[in-house]
Amino acid sequence: MIQIDCPYCGKRNEDEFVYGGDTGHRRPEDPAGLSDAEWCEYIYSVPNTRGWANETWWHVRGCNRWITIQRNAESNEVRPASQNESHG
Ligand SMILES: [Zn+2]
């Protein structure tokens, strides 16, 4: 089980969170302006970074905030991101 250090609540088990994805995989600003191929590329070509990646997680069973952490996909080691960002 991964322990995620929420900047608002402290260390919590992973099951209190919902994975939000890699911060480098951003929704296109104008989805309606994309071709079907471009939309499929966005939907199905999700980054799967080996090693450290910045990820967003929603603390749904805690403070209900989005946080950004760094997670090593090989070891599941977690550390704070250099900058936490809020998504609402
Ligand atoms: Zn929290």
How are the elements arranged and paired?
Elements: E1 3-6, E2 10-13, E3 18-22, H1 36-44, E4 52-58, E5 66-72, E6 78-80
Antiparallel strand pairs: 1-2, 3-4, 4-5, 5-6
Bound molecules: zinc ion.
Number of domains: 1
Low-confidence stretches: 84-88
Shape: globular
Main β-sheet, in a few words? 4 strands, antiparallel
Question: Structural class from helices and strands?
Answer: mainly beta
- How much of the sequence lies in strands comes to 25-35%
**SSE run:** EEEHEEE
Task: Quote the distance from N terminus to C terminus.
Answer: 26 Å
Q: How many helices does DSSP assign?
A: 1
Average pLDDT rating: 90
Radius of gyration: 14 Å
Please tell me about this protein's structure.
The chain has a single domain (3-25, 32-80), classed as Folate-binding superfamily (Folate-binding fold, 2-Layer Sandwich), CATH 3.30.2270.10. Helix content is 10%, strand content 34%. It has one helix at residues 36-44, and strands at 3-6, 10-13, 18-22, 52-58, 66-72, 78-80. It starts with a strand and ends in an 8-residue tail after the last strand. 9% of the residues are buried. Residues 84-88 have low confidence and may be disordered. The structure holds zinc ion. Zinc ion (ZN) is lined by residues 6, 8-9, 59, 62-63, 65.
